[in-house]
Design goal:
heterodimer; A: alpha/beta; 7-stranded beta/alpha barrel; immunoglobulin/albumin-binding domain-like; 2 domains; nine-stranded mixed β-sheet; B: alpha+beta; Immunoglobulin-like; five-stranded antiparallel β-sheet; four-stranded antiparallel β-sheet; elongated
């Protein structure tokens, strides 16, 4: 008999980045890199576990912006181009490093990874949603949704119609893709604001997650801390994040990804190799960028790096998986005595931590699942819906406003570098509600309806928390500013054209084909 | 950055805070500190250090929307952000109406603590004023009051002390900075037991520290992580290097033969361009490299071998 549960949550998200107006667009690389380094490696891990008949449970949020990109034929085609170029470069690298055996074997590793990425991508019809959907069908993966464009809900408190639209649009998008209703949601940035659970309830969502202090600082006090879910007054369940297990993966002191045997993220051949040689593979403007071939291991605290040794890294990943399980077992046993009830450990991570940032992350996850399955019976992997069906009786509290961002609240998304956006976002939201109300009962003709729907798309795209995040962290700031302004400007123009019944169809078609997210959207969601 | 508050007002607030009786956690942040999770999140968008690309929008967002309005946003247990717009016609009207009194008046944000009441302008638990320079349109307010409800007026304070409201804000609620004091009868839990669960929850094991201190420790740790970043990658941004020099050598081997011939270099096949030429590029380590280049005609009847030998030595 197990003494406790482990719920691993992978939050996968990228903002909607699609630029048909340019042949090559730097920021689209975020998506291509994440496919090669995170999503496909995770898919391969899940596939192998299933082939080996190993039972497991992972909860995964796939944000509507990300799944929209997975389904987009232009981006699919561009990914093939991207991976073909990487394969070509990897071939050259295998050749170039012929006299350096320590690099040669790593070059070969990349070559075979890139081939495998391409064939996996093709195998799922170039749409990775198909892969995740099949794992969900087998009961191994519980796919949950997120805010439609990952808007930061607590900062939309004065225009909650936008929170509703974020949730409703996400839910109908999920239904269209996965053929069922989403039972859970990952609130963008794990940010909960009391009252938002009512909106989730109306949308038929049964649970969400909050950071530890969301539950721990809830009212009244949670009897089991964050080791059992709680119900909000609305009846929607809230699962609190466990910081102990997060720390082992995230922490800079003794956190797994910092191990010296693991691959160094910041040494990339895009910057290390001769300019003329690498030029065809970097940005067409000649700007050096990360390419994804990285030859060094972390090695130590200085800038002197030694070559990566895949076998050593693999051994470490196994060791770290064992260490993680050992610690969870001790944690569960301790809590079991304290609570007289099986504790639930909720460990959420950014999916992009695995593979992209922490190259060995997917391997670690693979070891982890296998060891849990074969070597022990103290902890059992569980999904939130499984847990709730086995443990339906839980305490009722109101969780506290919180996020999993730095310092636990809204400071990353509301500070000197990005606070200017909110007056415009709120104004646009108010105007969208005005439009939705004015046209809710009217029979809108084709053109008017298209304009209204596009207005909602532009508003949602402007609301992505990523733009504020990027403004705060300082890389690609111009891009984030541009995206915020362009969507707001398009929204305002649509608003004015709708109000004066003077819709410019040519321009509307142009932005419809550019910002083509959520083809099924209904502007009435924003009220 | 955020803290903008006059000394005078701060004094007023401190005395008020005592009445509420919650201590405030002092947080100071330096911009250079990069927290862990931010760094990982940021890595999603990291394509290497980029030169910043200029962006000139075709059009700018409007400076205002022509309506008097003030909005509050709760940022965390202590801070509220306020933004507002006051139209010039409103200001003109007031100037006309008040005459000399307008000139000597101060622009003021009056912040009301309206926790658990229905606010009727007079019944706030307390309020404090922040003087605002006339051209400013936003402010970070240090409420020093977690777990309270707030609303604010933007208005004029005349020299005789009279306050004229121009616009009133929405209501916001600052979250608690620690566990609730309210326990559920049905689910009663002894304090020490809760303290242990709480310690586990915030990632401190079953440490016997007091509840609030545990939370403060967690915040401090997050803030402090910036310093730890410099120790080991990848939990940090790329290190800024001091002066440095890196030198590598590569060797280009090129040649041509009949387009339909087969060519090997060091026994490995080489693909030819349509014109029969070929180029290979090798990283060249120290030592001696012999590169037998062997071409065989299509019919297999003819064969040539040329063997360049290169030595690299680093001094």
């Amino acid at each position: 008999m197990n003494k406790g549960y482990l719920c691993i949550v992978l939050h996968s998200h990228l903002p909607f980045v699609r630029h048909p107006e340019h042949e090559d667009f730097l920021e689209e690389d975020w998506f291509y890199e994440a496919i090669t380094e995170t999503y496909i490696p995770l898919i391969l891990v899940f596939e192998k576990l299933i082939n080996d008949k190993i039972d497991f449970r992972i909860t995964m949020s796939l944000t509507p912006t990300l799944t929209s990109m997975f389904c987009d034929s232009l981006l699919q085609e561009r990914y093939i181009k991207h991976i073909n170029k990487l394969i070509e470069l990897a071939h050259r690298e295998v050749e170039r490093t012929r006299w350096q055996p320590e690099f040669h074997s790593v070059a070969n590793m990349y070559l075979s990874r890139f081939y495998e990425a391409r064939s996996t991508f093709e195998r799922y019809g170039r749409n990775l949603v198909n892969a995740f959907k099949s794992f969900q069908g087998l009961g191994k993966l519980e796919i949950i949704t997120c805010g439609a464009t990952h808007g930061f809900f607590p900062l939309m408190e004065v225009c909650r119609a936008s929170v509703k639209a974020q949730v409703k649009v996400a839910v109908s998008h999920y239904e269209r893709l996965f053929g069922k209703h989403p039972i859970g949601i990952w609130l963008p940035e794990c940010a909960y604001n009391p009252g938002d659970d009512e909106i989730l309830k109306q949308a038929g969502i049964k649970y969400f997650f909050s950071d530890a202090h969301g539950v721990l600082h809830g009212t009244p006090r949670p009897k089991y801390g964050c080791f059992a879910p709680v119900y909000c007054r609305s009846g929607v369940a809230c699962f609190g994040r466990d910081l102990e297990s997060s720390k082992q993966v995230w922490s800079s002191i003794g956190g797994y990804p910092g191990d010296y045997n693991y691959r160094e993220f910041y040494r990339d051949i895009g910057f290390d190799l001769d300019y003329e040689y690498i030029k065809p593979f970097i940005h067409p403007d000649g700007i050096r960028i990360n390419i994804g071939i990285k030859y060094y291991r972390i090695t130590g605290p200085t800038n002197d790096k030694s070559p990566y040794v895949p076998d050593w890294a693999r051994d470490k990943a196994g060791e770290h998986a064992g260490n993680f399980i050992f610690n969870r077992q001790r944690q569960v046993e301790y809590l079991y005595d304290l609570m007289r009830k099986k504790p639930l450990i909720v460990s959420p991570y950014d999916a992009e931590l695995f593979g992209h940032w922490w190259f060995e992350g997917p391997m670690w996850l693979d070891f982890l699942i296998r060891k849990i399955y074969f070597d022990q019976d103290i902890i059992r992997m569980v999904t939130p819906s499984e847990y709730l069906s086995e443990n339906p009786r839980n305490q009722v509290i109101t969780p506290s406003m919180s996020s999993w961002g730095w310092k636990g609240y809204g400071e990353v998304w509301l500070q000197g570098s990005n606070d200017w956006i909110y007056r415009h976002l709120h104004q646009a939201s108010e105007r969208m509600s005005e439009l939705a109300k004015a046209f809710s009962s009217k029979n809108t003709d084709g053109l008017m309806q298209r304009a209204l729907n596009q207005a909602l798309r532009e508003l949602l795209l402007a609301q992505s928390s990523d733009w504020a995040f990027i403004m705060a962290t300082g890389t690609h700031v111009n891009y984030a500013v541009r995206r915020t302004k362009n969507h707001l400007l398009s929204f305002t123009r649509l608003y004015e054209e709708i109000k004066t019944n003077s819709i410019n169809e040519g321009w509307l078609s142009e932005i419809e084909s550019k910002d083509n997210i959520f083809p099924e959207i209904d502007y009435r969601a924003h009220q | 950055m955020p803290a903008r508050i006059s000394k005078k007002n701060k004094k007023v607030m401190k005395s008020k805070v005592k009445r509420i009786g919650r201590e405030r956690i002092k947080i100071s942040v330096q911009k250079s500190e990069v927290p862990l999770q931010v760094a990982v999140g940021e890595s999603k968008f990291y394509l290497g250090e980029q030169p910043s690309r200029a962006y000139h929008p075709a059009q700018e967002l409007p400076a205002g929307y022509g309506r008097d309005k003030i909005v509050l946003m709760a940022r965390d247990p202590w801070w509220i952000y306020a933004y507002w717009e006051i139209t010039s016609s409103t200001i003109d009207r007031l100037r006309e109406k008040l005459g000399h009194a307008f000139v000597s008046s101060k622009r003021v944000l009056r912040v009301y603590d309206i926790s658990d009441i229905i606010f009727d302008r007079k019944n706030a638990h307390r309020f404090f004023d922040i003087e605002i320079p006339p051209e400013t349109n936003n402010w970070y307010i240090d409420t020093q009051g977690p777990g309270r409800s707030w609303c604010a007026d933007y208005g004029l304070r005349l020299t005789n002390g009279e306050f004229i409201t121009i616009v009133r804000s929405n209501t916001v609620h600052t979250p608690l900075e620690g566990p609730s004091w309210i326990t559920d009868e049905e689910w009663m839990i002894p304090e020490d037991l809760f303290a242990r669960l709480y310690g586990m929850g915030v990632g401190f094991g079953s440490s016997p520290l007091k509840l609030k201190r545990l939370w403060q420790e967690r915040l401090k740790r997050e803030l402090g992580s910036g310093a730890v970043f410099s120790i080991s990658s990848p939990m940090k941004k790329a290190q800024k290097r001091g002066f440095w020099l890196a030198v590598n050598t590569e060797l280009i081997l090129y040649g041509a033969t009949e387009p339909n011939a087969t060519v090997t270099v060091q026994g490995q096949p080489v693909s030819l361009r349509p014109d029969g030429s070929f180029t290979l590029r090798f990283a060249l380590p120290d030592g001696k490299q012999a590169m037998p280049v062997k071409a065989k005609s299509f019919s297999g009847s003819e064969e040539r071998t040329i063997t360049p030998v290169v030595t690299r030595e680093t001094k």
